[in-house]
Amino acid sequence: MCPACGEPLRVEWLRPLLLGAVAVVAVVLALWAGPRLRHAWQSLPPLSVVNTAREVVTEIPGLLLWIPTLTPSLTPSPTAIPTRTSTATPTPTLTPLPTPTQTPPPTETPIPTSTPSPTATRSRTTATRLPATSTSPASTSTPLPSLEAPVLRQPKDGTSYQNKLQIKLSWTASFTLGSDQFFEIAMRFTQQGTEVVRAYIVQDREWTVDTALYLLADADTNRAYHWRVRAVQRSWDPAGKAFYIPASYPSDEWVFYWE
Q1: What is the spatial distance between Cα 232 and Cα 247, in angstroms, rounded to a whole number?
Q2: Which end of the chain is more exposed for a tag (fewer CB within 10 A), N or C?
């Protein structure tokens, strides 16, 4: 109510409503225009803004404003980026390997070959016993045998015989004898404690043991008779006497017992 006249006062509701609407519009405009003005201001060069402001101030008389003078900043000098200095990698030095020294192979020492002494004989038609002490004439060198050794067949090694029987020895050979080549059978036994060797010359590949040899071997040896065969070549000395040179290697030595 009015304090002066007592009349009830009318509520003026329109003015607050208008003020509120203006405030809302102002806020909306500020929100809409603020970022744009800020962007435009930031996009303006500072020097252009200052010059424009000075021109406006000089055109309005009586307006006293102090506009600071912009001092251009020094152009920043680019900072030199340190350059990586490459460290030279040392090149490995190749050390040559020592050259292996070849060791010469061992030299084989030839094994001396024993050359049996030729034994003289008397005849080529029948088996002939040669003296154990007969020797061939002296010569400067003895040729090595060129034929293979004969192979013994009968009797088998270690065969025993009883009584005075005929014992036949036989063998094989891989060669054929020439007209002046023969087989030599060497019989070895012990008689009264002394070793005796008797040689027989034949051209056949078998020979019947001479019965005169029966019981000549000592009893303490079980009457053992050792025998072997080889091929020989007949030759002649200056006096016209025949002697024999080994033409093949000797066979194995077998034994038979004759009691």
Answers
A1: 5
A2: N
